[in-house]
Structures are given as structure tokens and as C-alpha cells.
Amino acid sequence: MKSIISKSLVLAITSIAFFSFTSSPGGEGFEIYLNNKVVLQQFGTNMDDIKSLRVNGSSANDQLSIKYHHCGRAGKNRMVTVKDSQNKVLKEWKFTDVKDAYASMNCNVKDITALKKQTGGPLKLYYSSSELPNGRLLALIDVNRSVTTAP
């Protein structure tokens, strides 16, 4: 009996130690690409630190791609929205459900730069899904400047 308890205790301690030191898969975060180059990336505790994304739309073919990570699962009813400084929706892109947790959502930069003509203030880039129904502000968009991210 003592042997069974000892073995059970060793197994329990080993299991706890193993799962304590391994990182859990997934995690919430997002990446924004411009023409397949990462321009903004945030995960975990940095999610509330809002950065600026500058786009100039100099090329009619420039493409913004967003990958939002829901702890290793694909979001359902995914949507990317651009709002003005008063949170009025200027443009929405809706994306079909996919199984790939890292599928990107693509938007033409020229569609975003055209919105700047409608408003004088900054533009806000949001992501929402069934898992995040209230949405998350991903970045402030600065139009007509060189493409970089603010610190």
C-alpha cells in the first residue's frame, strides 16, 4: 500500500512539474503585415498598448494583412473595421470562417487611404469576431506618411 501511495505521489509531482514549466499552446495576439512584411505585432500583456500604423498608399496594389490569434483557434465571424475618431464605422470587411488558426484577413491599402478623405481625424483599425464581439482596437492609422510603426 505504501508503495502505491509513493508511486502515485511521485507521478503527481512529476506531472505538476512538467506542466508548470511548459508553455501552453496558443495565446491571444495579432500581427499586421504590409505586402507580406510584418509592420506590427503584439501578444499577451502588450495587447492594450496601441501603436500607430502609417500607410501611404503609394501603390495601388499595397495590401494590409491581419492575423489575429485566439489561443490557437480560428475566430468565427471575423471582421476588420475602420472607424473615425468618433467611432463611426467607415468601412467593414467580413471574412468567411476558416479552420486555419493563422489565416490572414486582407484589405487593400487604397481602400483605407480613401477613407482619410472622409474624415480629418485619425482612423482606427479594429478586429472583432464571435470570440471577441466587442472588438479590439489594433492600431491607429496614419495615412500619407512612410510605412513604419510608432514606438
User: Strand order, biggest sheet?
Assistant: 3-9-8-5-6
Low-pLDDT ranges: 14-25, 145-151
Euclidean distance between termini CA atoms? 62 Å
Largest sheet: 5 strands, mixed
CATH class: Mainly Beta
Q: What percent of residues adopt helix (DSSP H or I)?
A: 10-25%
Instruction: Report the CATH architecture.
Output: Sandwich
Task: Write the element-wise H/E pattern from the N-terminal end onward.
Answer: HEEEEEEEHEE
Please state the structural category. alpha+beta
Strand percentage, roughly?
35-45%
Summarize model confidence as the mean pLDDT: 78
- Assign the CATH topology: Immunoglobulin-like
**Helix segment count?**
2
- Number of E strands: 9
* Large-scale geometry: globular
Q: How many structural domains in the coordinates?
A: 1
Using the CA coordinates, give the radius of gyration.
Answer: 21 Å
